[in-house]
Task: inverse folding
């Protein structure tokens, strides 16, 4: 500050004082801000400030001059300081500079100034605005117009470069615009022409270039040391009190543990934003939460018809999700982990990236096929819903094939789902249970035979399972065990479970802070699932807690379990009732199954093993950039 003070004392007419600075990237000093090719402008500042921003941003400003110029224009996204200097100099302010460095300026790829396309487009816009709102001489107006045109050409070049790293971007249109502009540099026009003729070849070459280098402010080529990763999640990863949340937390913990990574997180349509959505110990560079109600049905129907996407996608406000992505992203991501198929389908054109992993936890097409195979025996499988699923089945199959073609890896939760998808870059990442295990309490068979169904009851397969258990299985069970009860535990769905609330032996418990006491006090956890996808975290949770399990074949499919060894498998209502009655009559059988389930969980499905699987997959995909 002493050097700035001395400058202002020597030149009392100055309204702005800046200094030189040392540029630093990843701890390495690259040189100074000002140099032979980018000097500070002592003379003709009115003209020079329209040609380039010669003011380093670390400044001291006279308050009166700042206020007289109107301060910063908050409507400008980039180069707000340059806009202010233009207005101040035009109003008569003078800018001075201390020639020696008084600051360190750290350059990183996620800074606003590193997005060259957005920066140049914003500069061009503010200069065009300057032409209309300031009183410029003919010469000054010519300089401003010329600079704006050059910035527009720079923006066009960098839009093309960014598009080369983004699947589905309009590369040919952008290339044609650059190639047809005679004012563009010859090298840029040749690159654009090559892109137009051989887009795949140029795209590959551009990816290889950007694998190890990125262009910093002013077009400086800088080595790429830190990797940028975006994770989109279909549910909040904390607390881990549900299957989607547990899988989201596992992926996030694994990706956050990658070395030299800047992690951005986007939580989509998981309810109102909360203060702490991330698991303890997970640090994100930036985290955004987007939530909104569904589109009006008429609008969603139009989207379905025009885009040929399932209702689940058509009804979501993806425009809000795309806005959030643009706010997060200042440069291309090295890796994007899409946490659901609909995320990949709806956001692929928005996110600039070099590698893509899609977590297809629920493979929708076999889930719908299983639903359509059910008899129309209840409200959850009524004709209108069946018709909708028949229409959506080919739509989901088309989208799954598209994701398989475009992703670098597709993640499923079992070998069975990998076989269903067929050929392609498919990897298995099992589900896990990541909740706390009780230190002292253990499972004890209750006096009153009690069977607990845990689930999120706005998920249709869980609602169907609950209704099926309460209306078809429980009456048969109570013929054998008159005191038997079923407890439905989990978030949401009270309106959907209205038809079973109040039935003999049925307790609609709803959401609880911790399901552990419910499970430890049960004769068994029941999973009477009749359709759905993925693997059931509720089974893994029971295994981890040492609680016996009764499940349908579909409920435990994809898990490495054996009927009669790790759990009891039964499918129709009579068989399910018989299996539950068997455990109610023989606690020793329950203890044997519970012990085997616990051993299987610790061997194959423990959180540490799953986290390591995700991390290894991400490293292999990222290695393809090197």
Result:
């Amino acid at each position: 500050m002493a050097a700035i003070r001395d400058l202002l004392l020597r030149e009392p007419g100055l309204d702005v004082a800046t200094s030189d600075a040392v540029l630093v990237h990843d701890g390495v000093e690259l040189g100074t801000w000002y140099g032979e090719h980018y000097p500070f402008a002592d003379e003709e500042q009115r003209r020079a400030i329209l040609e380039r921003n010669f003011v380093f941003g670390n400044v001291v400003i006279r308050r009166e001059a700042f206020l007289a110029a109107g301060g910063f224009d908050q409507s400008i996204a980039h180069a707000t300081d340059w806009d202010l200097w233009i207005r101040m100099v035009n109003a008569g302010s003078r800018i001075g500079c201390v020639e020696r460095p008084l600051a360190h300026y750290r350059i990183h790829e996620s800074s606003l100034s590193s997005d060259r396309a957005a920066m140049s487009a914003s500069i061009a816009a503010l200069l065009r605005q300057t032409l209309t709102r300031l009183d410029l001489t003919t010469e000054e107006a010519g300089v401003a117009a010329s600079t704006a045109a050059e910035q527009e050409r720079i923006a066009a070049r960098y839009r093309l470069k960014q598009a080369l790293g983004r699947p589905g971007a309009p590369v040919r249109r952008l290339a044609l615009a650059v190639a047809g502009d005679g004012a563009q540099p010859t090298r840029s026009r040749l690159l654009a022409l090559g892109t137009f003729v051989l887009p795949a070849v140029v795209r590959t070459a551009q990816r290889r270039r950007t694998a190890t280098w990125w262009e910093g402010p002013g077009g400086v080529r800088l080595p790429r040391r830190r990797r940028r990763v975006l994770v989109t999640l279909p549910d909040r990863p904390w607390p881990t009190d549900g299957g989607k949340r547990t899988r989201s937390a596992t992926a996030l913990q694994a990706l956050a543990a990658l070395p030299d990574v800047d992690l951005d997180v986007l939580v989509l349509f998981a309810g109102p934003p909360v203060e702490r959505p991330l698991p303890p110990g997970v640090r994100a560079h930036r985290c955004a939460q987007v939530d909104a109600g569904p589109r009006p049905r008429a609008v969603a129907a139009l989207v379905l018809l025009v885009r040929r996407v399932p209702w689940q996608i058509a009804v979501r406000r993806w425009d809000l999700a795309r806005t959030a992505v643009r706010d997060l992203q200042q440069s291309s991501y090295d890796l994007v982990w899409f946490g659901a198929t609909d995320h990949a389908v709806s956001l692929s054109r928005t996110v600039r990236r070099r590698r893509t992993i899609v977590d297809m936890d629920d493979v929708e097409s076999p889930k719908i096929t299983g639903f359509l195979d059910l008899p129309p025996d209840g409200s959850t499988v009524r004709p209108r819903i069946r018709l909708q699923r028949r229409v959506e089945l080919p739509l989901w199959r088309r989208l799954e094939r598209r994701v398989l073609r475009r992703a670098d890896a597709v993640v499923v939760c079992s070998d069975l789902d990998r076989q269903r998808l067929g050929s392609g870059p498919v990897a298995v990442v099992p589900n896990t249970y990541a909740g706390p295990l009780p230190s002292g309490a253990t499972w004890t068979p209750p006096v009153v035979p009690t069977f607990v169904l845990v689930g999120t009851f706005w998920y249709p397969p869980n609602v169907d399972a609950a209704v099926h258990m309460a209306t078809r299985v429980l009456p048969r069970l109570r013929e054998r065990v008159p005191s038997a009860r079923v407890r439905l535990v989990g978030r949401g769905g009270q309106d959907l479970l209205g038809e079973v609330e109040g039935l003999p032996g049925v307790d609609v418990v709803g959401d609880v802070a911790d399901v552990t006491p419910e499970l430890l006090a049960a004769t068994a956890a029941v999973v009477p699932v009749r359709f759905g996808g993925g693997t059931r975290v509720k089974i893994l949770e029971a295994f981890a807690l040492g609680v016996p399990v009764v499940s349908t074949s579909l409920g435990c499919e994809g898990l490495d379990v054996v009927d009669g060894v790790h759990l009891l498998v039964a499918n129709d209502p009579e068989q399910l009732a018989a299996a539950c009655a068997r455990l109610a009559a023989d606690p020793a059988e329950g203890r044997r199954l519970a012990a085997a389930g616990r051993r299987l969980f610790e061997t194959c499905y423990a959180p540490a093993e799953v986290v390591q699987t995700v991390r290894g997959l991400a490293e292999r995909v990222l290695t393809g950039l090197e």
